Amino acid sequence: MPEMPKVQGLVDFLRLKLLPPDGPPATVAEVEVLSFSVLKTAVVPVGELGTKAVSDFVRRGKFIVLTAGGAHLVMHLAKAGWLRWSDALKPGRLRPGKGPIALRVRFAADGEGEPGFDLTEAGTKKSLAVYVVRDPNEVPGIERLGPEALDVDFEAFARMVASHRGQIKGLLRDQSAVAGIGNAYSDEILHAARLSPFAIASKLDPDEVERLFEAMRGTLESAIAGASGRPAAELKDSKRKAMRVHGRTGEACPVCGDEVREVSFADSSLQYCPTCQTGGKLLADRRTSKFLK
After folding, report:
1. pTM (predicted TM-score)
2. Which of 25, 32, 159, 244 is the most buried (most CB within 10 A)?
3. Alpha carbon separation from 94 to 51, 104, 145 (Å, rounded)
4. Cβ 53 vs Cβ 27: under 8 Å
């Protein structure tokens, strides 16, 4: 699932296309819904976005929000969704249900070719979600969001950790606690903080909480800087290359050289370094567990 840095990279790239600093904003020409299951709302017609100039394009947690006129197009890429930009889409409407494209947004042509973007989803488990609303807070996932991870100060973060009775990785991934962090960057943050993913949050000592806070900020700021302004097609590869432990099972830890290990669950996995994070202890496999589901 795309997390804060990659989603922010998408938003930064598209803001330059849709809200150029040296020109007028883009105007929505048409929104084509190719997979009707992707659209989760019906009160505000999709057509209300058409012929309206884009007034904002922002990230909220892992959501992307395009504002045009009095309506907001809210997109959540879920586990296998992605956004593909084109400076010149092929002319002609697409046929619903054909191919991976779930939704296409066309913008008024400014010169040759009609620019726009497609929302696509790979695989058979369809969870990509699109909402058209008057207020982004009407979207349940946004309404439940906690503060952005980089907006939380140390005192608030320390209180949050002290009051959480579960494992620290679960807290980092809880969107109602801190917004934007998922499975991948929680692995990276915990590795940088030298903490076990199974450590109980409320039992961390003050030094560990401070390390965790600094690791969260440093990891996310570095990832956002690496993603900002990159074309959408480059973001996935740039994220993989920057990872130290996530997705690197069996490889050498770049800090100590130990082998990166994995814990598998029913529908996900995490990666960690035993030497850096668990005092050399190997964590038990949780393949039948619902932890972090």
Report:
1. 0.88
2. 244
3. 20, 9, 34
4. yes
